[in-house]
Amino acid sequence: MTGTLVLAGTPIGDIADAPPRLAEELAGADIVAAEDTRRLRRLTQALGVLPKGRVVSYFEGNESARTPELVEELLGGARVLLVTDAGMPSVSDPGYRLVAAAVEKDIRVTAVPGPSAVLTALALSGLPVDRFCFEGFLPRKAGERLSRLREVAGERRTLVYFEAPHRLDDTLAAMAEVFGTDRRAAVCRELTKTYEEVRRGPLDELARWAAEGVRGEITVVVEGAPEAGPGELDAEELVRRVRVREEAGERRKEAIAAVAVEAGVPKRVVFDAVVAAKRAPGGGAGGGAENPL
Prior knowledge:
- By secondary structure, the chain is an alpha/beta fold.
- It is built from eleven helices and ten strands.
- It has helices at 20-28, 37-47, 63-75, 96-104, 117-125, 142-151, 168-179, 203-210, 235-247, 252-263, 267-279; strands at 4-8, 31-34, 54-57, 79-83, 108-112, 132-137, 158-163, 184-189, 197-202, 218-222.
- The protein has a five-stranded parallel β-sheet with strand order 3-2-4-1-5, with helices on both faces. Strands 6-7-10-8-9 form a five-stranded mixed β-sheet, sandwiched between helices.
- α9 packs across α10.
């Protein structure tokens, strides 16, 4: 018989949030694969657990090499417990490669549910939570970050991101540039920890606040794009949305058509706004105009 791969959620801050099953699995697993063995040691000590199985490291640097080893152990009948530093393995943490490899070999994969920074931040944000998408970490380079944001500029679901504190101000400024300065957002810092803080407001305001310096682990929740009715968007906003789509790689004709659908206006209205912006000082949307009709 093959073994079982267990993905175990770990506390994102308060150790008291650890699910009871976590201690049982730590004590009984044949192998515990940990993102950081030192943090694992602190976790087991806090829970009063002594793992009986072998403890190995499993982090970004050795994930590719160690995955086949763990799969072989699973095929031999081992119960392998995967834990990361905080939250659920595979969610912006090591784990995906091992899960995919296990599934390919028809190895059973299960989980010990635990705290989630994504869901906790969503619940605390005060923004709509009925539909959302998780975008993980944005690229570190400014140009790549802007491109990624432009891809979801028209996304109507609430967006959730992880971010490093030293890049937060640049990220929020980029979001304000792409999504609009008045788009609502929430910055959730140090969730469930002593200095937990949730800062809510428009993106430009949050960017100014973050420029003063922020510490801790950060989750950013951003309101989705509004569903504008006919005539609600002015010409400047229509042009901005076309520009965002063009910079993301769309041809102008397709960008105009998509923005017209988003805004609930005829394509001609968007086309005329783009042409007028091009003729204005500064060149608005830039380039030559195509007839989208």
